[in-house]
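Deadline looming. Please check this record:
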Amino acid sequence: GGFMTSGRTQGQAAGKLAAAHLAGRPMKALPPVVESPNEYVFNDAQLGALGLDLPEAVAQKARMINWRQGFIERHLQEVLTILFLLAIGLAVMLYLFTQVRRKNHLLQRVNRSLKHQEHLVRESEERFRRLFELSQDPMLLIHESRFVMANNASARMLGYADASELLKVHPSTLSPETQPDGQPSFHKAEALIKEAHDKGYLRFEWVHLRKDKTPRLTEVSLTRIPNPGGACNELFCVWHDITDRRRAEA
């Protein structure tokens, strides 16, 4: 960043001169532009990465772009993964307590513990549900290569009125026929889903299509959800639209 040429400020200065001339003032009588038509513009994320602080006089009038992310934004994936693991762990404990309550001499103690664990499970599920539904980041759940859950943010990103329009569809359905590397979207999606299941976590870039067929470049994160009852066939999916960021970088 720095002291940058501002098309907006230049245009305003030119517009004022043109308006005065059109109002009847001769060109020679127009006052010269003496204020600099420039402005301070800085990349906040880069300032943070370099450990730089702007002087107060500059910071008050500077225009900031690319604001740095807060703790929750930087670690959203980890927070959601912990919540998933917590819910699964509590579900396992609930199952064990249900088995133990068959024994008469532990019935009362197990009943008290069971109620407590049920309360914790409901609280955990409710926290996750609120975080999932109210999050401004698009979040989805993939089961056997199909979206089975989606929040409103994911529908908004792709221009759909309701998240239900994204359910029971393959990721390639919301994508162009091929990706930028020339691979068919269907086959590439299947390969990436399998790789995410094998590795446990995968991040990659993907081109989606909005409902109006406008392409959007997206950073996709896939996290395998552990299933203590059998095979892990579900993936937690988070989208980040990076179209504007890539254009700015270019």
